[in-house]
Design a protein that fits this description.
The complex is a heterodimer of chains A (about 375) and B (about 300). Helices cover about 25% and strands about 35% of the residues of chain A. In chain A, a hairpin with a 2-residue loop joins strand 11 and strand 12. Residues about 355-364 of chain A have low confidence and may be disordered. Chain A has a 6-stranded mixed beta sheet, with helices on both faces. Chain A has helices at about 40-50, 90-100, 110-125, 140-150, 170-185, 195-205, 220-225, 230-235, 325-330, 350-355, and strands at about 5-10, 15-25, 30-35, 55-60, 65, 75-80, 155-160, 190-195, 205-210, 215-220, 240-250, 250-255, 255-260, 270-275, 280-285, 295-305, 305-310, 320-325, 340-345, 350. The model of chain B is unreliable at about 1-15 (pLDDT under 50). Chain B is globular.
């Protein structure tokens, strides 16, 4: 079922958690609500679930108004960051809970419940834990049980609040791939909240980037990553270097380098910042083209197959970070303290006025 | 075989080291012995000795005298009244305690810290003052006295008054026990239950109650022990009518004042016995809690 979020507002005392958010989440897709802490993503998820009441606005499931439905009547599956398994029940009882608390008329018989629970436990590959207690399982296993429990009631939508947040890095990576495969199998409309951009980009069909209670951008992971709508999204989706630039009639200049920026064709002599990701910088040993950006190598860090460089240039306040494959770097023959030349392969230029809307950028 | 051999060799060396090694928090032998000795001496002087005195005093003239003392009509009335009060007061405080703990742990509202500190009031106020407060409130010269007598209701010098002061005095036990427990548990399990389609009542019954079970039992035991033994406030509101408004502690005092020491000790032994049973249940609960807590 599709989820409609229509002009939702929510404040906690003086803090605006969700600021007039409208979204259409299409049926059968896995959407990531991505944002830093305090961006309102969890609050929005809880409002969709009915665990929190919005101050104003509407929530719809498949066009049907849910705004005043009680959480227990909405038919949502909710997975909590800290699992929220019932400690005093076995894994089996946990998964069966949603079925056993149904009113007698709707409740399946014991055998049907048993079958359903066991098939769900097989789905999450934990059928052998049925008679254990949650405390006897690892974090990753508990979260899979929590997911099986949420799926037992055949929810219309599945909502996951930082589902991998409490797990260590390796389990996290495994579990998110597993969630992706699971979603491809069961195709229930799902929304998950995360502050980890890598997780959002890897797992989801759609990404909604939130900040300060507002939606900054939505789209497929590729759209959002390759074409960030504003400086915030650019910065939030990965490491980024900022170069001082000047924009005049559709061309940005950084030092001697000229970059076409057709979107700013009517700007005249304006200060701007060019956003360039570390792996989008080409590092050269000499300035053959004549317009590359001059830099000094401050540090060289080899991380497995890639090399991370920190470089100083007069066009940026902070050290520039560049990433390139080890073999390519070896071929350049550069050492710490050497001169190097930089050429961005891709960049996005934002005028300085735009920064004013984002307090994080104002100090640059 | 070789492995076994080497490990057997290694063991004595390790033991040696353990013996030499003294942890930073470990005190010398004499300090430990002195501290433990002082603790035991206090226990003997202030707990075990009085307990023995009660038992010796109760049974010193034989089982027959003891039996006569505790089955005498006034004594039986006192025991009955005490049990009646417990049966009324404990459920009241269970409801109150769970309600307050629920409100404090699960909701945010103004004046919450004030509410939490007010819960402790009954512990802070002297029982005699508590008794006086209710006499002033419900007594025949009191604020509500005229209204009560007009409706033919008796609270002071009657059972309702005793119930009220004991309920007041034992109010904090269950709430105190549950508030930190429920605060620590948060409301996620309840939220999970609700999203799974359970009603509020089912959520309370299947999720909240099992989670607070041990804390609740523990609170009930403490509340029960105190309700049986409450003296000061009861002495003021009960009017000490023999066979009618005397609870066990009051009855014991009456007997004592009349120089009926054996009878006083006999009734005391029952009260003490109930207390010992309570402590035994409490220890069992703690033991169970630890055991189940360890496996969870």
């Amino acid at each position: 079922m599709s989820i409609g979020v229509d002009r939702i507002n929510k404040r906690f005392n003086n803090f605006i958690a969700v600021d007039n958010v409208s979204l259409e989440l299409p049926e059968g897709q896995l959407t990531a609500l991505l944002g830093p802490s305090g961006s309102g993503k969890t609050t929005l998820l809880r409002i969709i679930a009915g665990l929190e009441q919005a101050d104003s606005g509407r929530i719809e499931f498949h066009g049907k108004d849910q705004t005043h439905e009680h959480v227990s009547d909405r038919g949502v599956g909710f997975v909590f960051q800290h699992y929220a398994l019932f400690k005093h029940m076995t894994v089996f009882e946990n998964v069966a809970y949603g079925l056993t608390v149904k009113p007698r008329r709707e409740r399946p018989n014991k055998e049907a419940i048993r079958k359903k629970v066991m098939s769900l436990l097989e789905l999450v590959q934990l059928d052998w834990t049925a008679h254990r207690y949650p405390a006897q399982l690892s974090g990753g296993q508990r979260q899979r049980i929590a997911l099986a429990r949420a799926l037992a009631v055949e929810p219309k939508v599945l909502l996951l609040d930082e589902p991998f947040g409490a797990l260590d890095a390796k389990v996290r990576a495994e579990l998110r791939r597993w969630l992706r495969r699971l979603h491809d199998e069961i195709h229930v409309t799902s929304v998950f909240v995360t502050h980890d951009q890598e997780e959002a980009l890897e797992v989801s069909d759609r990404v909604v980037v939130m900040n300060n209670g507002r939606v900054e951008q939505e789209g497929t992971p590729e759209e959002v990553y390759d074409h960030p709508a504003n400086p915030f999204v650019y910065r939030f989706l990965g490491n980024v270097n900022l170069f001082h630039a000047r924009v005049h009639e559709g061309t940005a200049t950084i030092g001697d380098l000229r970059v076409p920026v057709p979107e700013h064709s009517d700007s005249k002599e304006q200060d701007a910042l060019a956003y360039i990701r570390p792996h989008e910088i080409d590092v050269l040993a000499n300035n053959e083209s004549g317009d590359a950006i001059h830099a000094i190598i401050k540090s060289i860090l080899v991380v497995g197959p890639t090399v991370r460089l920190e470089l100083q240039t007069e066009h940026s306040k902070e050290l520039i970070q560049a990433e390139l494959p080890k073999h390519q770097f070896r071929g350049l023959g550069l050492l710490q303290g050497d001169e190097a030349w930089l050429r961005p392969m891709q960049s996005k230029v934002f005028l300085r006025e735009e920064d004013a809307t984002n307090p994080q950028e104002s100090d640059l | 075989m070789t492995e076994l051999h080497t490990s057997a060799q290694a063991t004595p060396v390790q033991l040696d080291r353990a013996a030499q090694w003294q942890r930073a928090t470990e005190e010398p032998q004499w300090v430990r012995r002195t501290l433990i000795g002082i603790a035991l001496a206090f226990l003997a002087a202030f707990l075990i000795l009085p307990l023995l005195v009660v038992l010796v005093g109760a049974f010193e003239q034989g089982l027959g005298v003891w039996y006569a003392a505790v089955t005498e009509p006034d004594a039986r009335a006192a025991i009955r009244l005490t049990l009646l009060v417990v049966v009324i007061v404990v459920p009241i405080n269970v409801i109150f305690g769970v309600t307050v703990a629920w409100a404090v742990a699960k909701f945010e509202f103004r004046g919450k810290p004030l509410l939490i500190s007010l819960i402790d009031m009954p512990f802070a106020i002297s029982p005699v003052v508590v008794g006086l407060i209710f006499v002033i409130l419900f007594g025949s010269q009191g604020w509500l006295g005229n209204w009560l007598s007009a409706h033919d209701l008796r609270i002071i010098f009657a059972v309702p008054g005793i119930v009220i002061v004991i309920a007041f005095g034992t109010m904090p036990f269950i709430a105190r026990e549950l508030i930190p427990l429920m605060q620590q548990q948060g409301k996620q399990e309840e939220e999970a239950s609700l999203t799974l389609g359970a009603s509020g009542l089912k959520t309370f019954w299947y999720v909240t109650l099992p989670n607070i079970k041990w804390g609740l039992i523990y609170g009930i035991i403490l509340c029960n022990a105190r309700a049986m033994g409450e003296f000061g406030a009861v002495a003021i509101v009960s009017g000490r009518i023999r066979g009618e408004t005397n609870t066990m502690p009051l009855h014991i005092e009456v007997l004592y004042n009349e120089y009926m020491f054996t009878a006083a000790f006999a009734v005391s032994s029952i009260l003490t016995g109930l207390a010992l049973v309570t402590i035994a249940i409490k220890s069992t609960v703690e033991w169970w809690e630890q055991r189940t807590g360890a496996t969870e």
